Amino acid sequence: MEKKLSSENNQLSSENILGLLPHRYPFALVDKVIENIPGERAVAVKNVTINEPQFQGHFPERPLMPGVLIVESMAQVGGIIVTQMQNLPKGLFVFAGINNVKFRKPVVPGDQLIISCDLLSIKRQRFGKVKGEAHVDGKLVCSGELMFSLVD
Description:
InterPro entries: FabA_FabZ (IPR013114), FabZ (IPR010084), HotDog_dom_sf (IPR029069). This protein is of the alpha+beta class.
């Protein structure tokens, strides 16, 4: 599948994202990219809806988006940055670690996560690190550093 950007502000549609990332329902956690500087930075949207499967058990009486899924959403935005880097080998980059992750506010159905990631480093064309932040209504809800590794 060819990787095409929409013409407006280098945005990526959900179809573009599916062409870049291997994730599929129910684990595709990025709805669209609203700012995209390939290999450097991406800002994306994740709309949190009550019909997502995790809310059946987390928690039925008071649904909260699990923190691990917020972090995974940030990792997927980081993956969008890495997969567009022309000088890296093609292959599957996987989540390899997290540092300094903090959860500051709960995320609930109806919220819209605005996730920004900035590339911090690439080493030996196999390992990457991004800084990620997730905001709801302009308030920081999660932040941290995420590491990626190319698997053979």
